[in-house]
Please model this.
Amino acid sequence: MKKLVAAALFVFAILYISIITSGLLYYQATSDTAKLNANNNASINDPTNSTSSTIVLNAQEVAKHNSASSCWMIIGNKVYDITSYLRIHPGGPGTILPYCGADGTAAFGGKPHSQYAQSLLVNYYVGNLNAQITTTTTSTPTQPTTSTQSTQPPATPLRRYEDD
Amino acid sequence: MLSNFRKNIGLFVVLVLSLVPVVIWYLLKPYNVFGVNIMTGLGEIFALVGMALFSLTMFISARIKSMEKYFGSLGRSYKIHHTLGGIAFILLLFHPLFLAGSYLLVSLRSAALFLLPGSDVVMNLGFISLYGMAAIMILTLFVKLPYHIKKNMHKIFGAVFIIGALHSFLVASDITRNPVLFYYMFGLFILGIFTVFYRTLFNRFFVKRFKYTVKDVKDMGDNIIEIEMGPCGKTISYKPGQYIFISFHQKDFSSETHPFSISSSPYDKNLKIVVKMLGDYTSKIKDLKAGTMAKVEGPFGDFSYQNAGENQIWIAGGIGITPFLSMARSFGRDMPNVHLFYCTSCESEAVYIDELKKIASKHDNFKLITWHSKDKGRLSGELIHKEHGLKNKDILICGPKVMTDALKDQFLKLGVSKSHIISEEFGLL
Model:
């Protein structure tokens, strides 16, 4: 047991320190590149098969993404795409689902969400409510969709704007 | 056969109870399990099993007399307690890492932030509990400290347990979302918390103790003291070879509780223990005076000739003669054929030799062999095998761990099966 506990403590320490240091260092790096991108304001993707479109992040637009396969939500006048977050929500995906495609400000504020939870939102930011954003869709050459399950979430690399 | 089954019931039940939360968890996941992020899933499962084991490990350490037989012996209970405690710790240690891992999906920074103390009180409780546990584990396992300090430090586990439980019941998780899981984990928690109170706040009321009075403190020579006590009320009933936890209540004498083997015969009205003055506590034992009150808890242990067959070899190393004294002093008809090897470094250490010689002279089937390692070297299994044979014999060994381990090894190599070797260690429980 002694050896096992010692090994466990050692591995824990290594992983813990790695995650913390890389997480904090990476933030430095990403916040720099993000600012750089914001300044350039250019579309990054391969233009050959891509179509640029402008959408307005209003309530109707958000309401289109109201399921587990694509879940957008309005929280405090900002729009978030939290599809990938559903699985890891400590409160369970079920508590978020009813608010997909809708305004979840009250629910988010009502249930005590820690500063940590607030900090996670940043990663899912799409844009401000009613703002106009440019989305770039890279579409593959026409493929007949044979499967009935076309639950592919829109593979749109979204522009990210760092909150200042 | 029944006893073989019975001594494993305890461990079996503990393992099942620890894994039940996983089954409940699995049945309750709204998505199918493969839809759950694997890091999150592992983080949750590790926390559930770890917490369940923590609660049950606490309960095992309560040293409840009626539970002893379900774990084989008190010594075995403590071994199980240590192993399960270690496993619980490792599971709990890794659960925040797995959860942090799931946040890697969000961003590397989120994962890092998850692991740092922040404004979330409930999360912080979790970290306090975890680091408290790690600190006690490290100090207990890897740092050399006096016995009584380690013992008292171990008590801090109670506080760590309560803080950890608060975290587990308040943090947003499967437990808070689901009543079945919540009440199950809470039930286990009650078991653990009962132990904490049983051994602290309610120690004097609930733990069964027998009151005895010191009658005689005999210096046997070679730093060995025999203490004889008379009952104040109910007498403790025990089998030869068992031990007790005893505390003495005398001014300027420590009231700590310590385990000692019983050296008196169960047919004696008075209770006797033999103490070798080795450490901080035992070196003061000769200061005990007649009339001092002693509180006795027990008896514990399954080191007994009654579990063995017709032909037995008893090997006593130094102060390890104590349980055999009880057996020899109660030697009568219906006793097996015994060869007792009384091993000491030299003659002056064999303080009970005269009494044992007398007993041997009265019983044909009780043979005494003295062995002084200074003259003859260490006693070996090979030697006993040559001179007395090991076939169809049960071997009982009691003495220092080094000696017990060495002899056990030798006997196993000579072909004696494990079930025929019974040993009692005077090591740390």
